[in-house]
Amino acid sequence: MSCGKRFDSGSCVIDILKDIVDAQNDVMHDCTTSCERSIADLLGDTGGGSGFDTVPVILYCKDGCTPFKGYGSKRSGDDCKVKGSFFFRVKSVDDDGCAILELLFAERRHDDDDEDEVEGSHRRKGFDPKSPADQSCKNLRASGICITVDLNCFCHVTCLPAAATL
């Protein structure tokens, strides 16, 4: 049984994520899914665009239906720091149910210095979210850290409010 309207792969999660990718890549088309509000916000009520470019998602693993936390790293010089996040931007979904997800982090501005700090990075000593509720979904930013997942391993998807992440 599928809950997606446009796709019918037999997997709710796959169908919804395919709908999100379509909406993100083509802001002018109309789309209705179970994440209807976030997609409508992305598309803008008038069809002229909203300034948003992403429907952030949280995925839940089939075994125990726990929130999925993805890990990855982005090389910075000789440094390689592994970061984890529960929030993702869907970059692509193929016909076999494999998806490329980009980890999203909240940017925070500190008043005592002029440097932006990305929540979830190891620059903030000891920050390692244990649940999605530990991460802020305000001011989400693309990280450039992408992972590949098998969407058949997930049983649930939660859409966060549409955001401008790029």
Structural overview:
With 166 residues, the protein is mainly β. The chain has one domain. The protein is built from two helices and eight strands. The protein has helices spanning 12-25, 36-43, and strands at 57-61, 70-76, 79-85, 88-93, 98-109, 116-118, 140-150, 154-159. The strands form three sheets. Strands 4, 5, 6 and 7 form a four-stranded antiparallel beta sheet that branches. A hairpin with a 6-residue loop joins strand 5 (98-109) and strand 6 (116-118). The longest helix has 14 residues, at 12-25. It is globular, with a radius of gyration of 16 Å. The relative contact order is 0.23. Mean pLDDT is 78; it is low at 28-34 and 109-126.
SSE topology:
Layout: H1 12-25, H2 36-43, E1 57-61, E2 70-76, E3 79-85, E4 88-93, E5 98-109, E6 116-118, E7 140-150, E8 154-159
Antiparallel strand pairs: 1-8, 2-3, 4-5, 5-6, 5-7
Keywords: Capsid protein, Virion
Protein name: Spore coat protein
Pfam families: Spore-coat_CotZ (PF10612)
Assess the beta-strand content as a share of residues.
25-35%
Share in helix: 10-25%
Structural class: mainly beta
Q: Would you tell me the overall average pLDDT? A: 78
Instruction: Please summarize the sheet with the most strands.
Output: 4 strands, antiparallel
Order of helices and strands: HHEEEEEEEE
Overall 3D form: globular
User: Can you tell me the residue ranges where pLDDT is under 50 for at least 5 consecutive residues?
Assistant: 28-34, 109-126
So how many helices?
Answer: 2
Cα distance, first to last residue? 34 Å
